[in-house]
Amino acid sequence: MQVTEVSSQGLKREYKVVLPAADLASRLEGELAGMRDKVKINGFRPGKVPMAHLKRVYGRSVMSEVVQNAVNEANRKIVEDNGLRLAMEPKIDLASDQAEVERAMEAEGDLSFTVAVETLPKFETGTFETIEIERLVAEVDEAEVTKAMERMADQNRVFTPKEGDDATAENGDKLTIDFDGKIKDEAFEGGAGKDIDVILGSDSFIPGFEAQLVGAKLGEERKVALSFPENYLSAQLAGQAATFDVTVKSIAAPGELKIDDDFAKNFGFDDLDGLKTAVRSRMEDEFSKASRDKLKRALLDQLDKRYSFDLPQGLVEQEFANIWRQVSDEQQKSGRSFADDDTTEDDAKAEYRRIAERRVRLGLVLAEVGESTGVKVGDDEITKALVEMVRQYPGQEKEVWEFYRKTPQALAEIRAPLFEEKVVDYIVTQAKVTDRTVSREELFKVEAGDNAMALPRSDAWSEDAPEASSDENDDARG
Questions:
Q1: Under a CB-based contact definition with an 8 Å cutoff, are residues 282 and 418 in contact?
Q2: Structural domain contains residue 10
C-alpha cells in the first residue's frame, strides 16, 4: 500500500492511496482460502472446492470486503503515521474511472483512492489565574417565600359554582366556555375551543378577551371583538381584527385563600413551617442555578475572546446545519419570517454561522482543557444522569434504559454535558471569582443572546422551563 500526501492547507489534508493489483489478488486469495473449509457448495466435499470456483461464486462480494478493509487500514495508517487528531470521519473518494474500479474489483488493476481529512487545531490553553469574573448572588427573603406560597394557594384555589339565572361573571371567577373565532368571517386554525377554563383577570388570554366576559350570565352567548397584538407569535394573526362567539357554560366563584397547616397538609407536610422550609429550599436551588448559569455565561464569553485559532470547517458546517434546522422548524411552526424579525435570511445566516463558530471554538477549548487536566466522568455519574433521564418517560423506563445502554452515541450525549460542567468547574476554581449581591430581578434577567450564544454544544445543555398548558395552541390564549 502506497500512501502519498497530495495537499495540505490549514487543517485540511488529502492523501492518495494506491493498492497494487498484486496486493489485492493476495488479499482476495487469503480471504477465499479462509472460506474454503467453511462453505458448502453442491457437488463438492468440504475443503475440496476449487479456488477458481470459489472466486466465481464469492469473488465479487469478498473483494468488496477486501476493499473496505483496505480503506480502513489506509485511514489508520494515515492517522498513526502522521500523528493526526481528526475533527471528523475521513472522506473517501474512489477513482472516478469506472473501468479502473472494475479492473481493481477483479484484481486485474491497481486500486487508487483519495482520503481527505480535517484535523483538530493545535493550541495552548495556558492558565486561568488571570481570568476575573463576577458571580451574581441573591438572597431568598421572607417576602419572596410568602409570595411563592400565595401563588401555590392561588393555583390550588377551590372554586364554588354559581347557580341560578342571575349568576353573573366577575373578575376572579372561573368560567368554562366554548368559543369560535373568525377573521373577516372566516374561521382560522386554533381559533376554536370547547370546555376551556379561564379565570377572569388572569390575563391568560389575549388582551381584551377576558374583560369582555365580565358581567356575562350563565348560559349567555356573547360576541367578543378584539385585535391580536402586533407582536403576536403567529405572524398570520399578528395585528388582525377578530371576533369570537363565546358561550358561557359555567361560572364559579373563588374560595378564600387560607395558608395554614391544613393547606400545608395538602402538599404532604405536617405543618406550615415544613412547607415554608421546602419552598425556601426550592427557591434557593433556583437562585443557585441562575447564579451558576450567569457565571458560566460570563466565563464562556471570556474564553471566546481569549482564544483564536483555525476552526475545522466540517464541524462548523455541521453545527450551523443543526442551528439552521432548528430556526427553520421554528419559523414553520410560528409562521414568522425573517422580515417579521427585522432581518433578512442572509443576515440571519451570517449571525447563526457566527454562533456556530463560537460553539465549536468553545467546545474545542473545553475538550482540550478537560483532556490536559485529566477531567473524567465516572460510570456512576453517567448512571445517575441516565436514571434522571429515564424518569422522564414513565411507563417506558425499561425500554429507554436499554436504548441508552445499547446506543453509544446516545450515551455520549449524556456524558458530554457532565464532562463540560466538570471542566467549567475546574476553570472556575482557577479563576478569580468575585461575588456581588444583586436583586432577584437582576439575577433572573435574560440578557440579549443568552439562549443563542451561551453554550458551546447545541445538544449538551438545557434550561428548566415551565410546563406548557395543554391548551397552548388555542389562539385565543395569550
A1: no
A2: yes
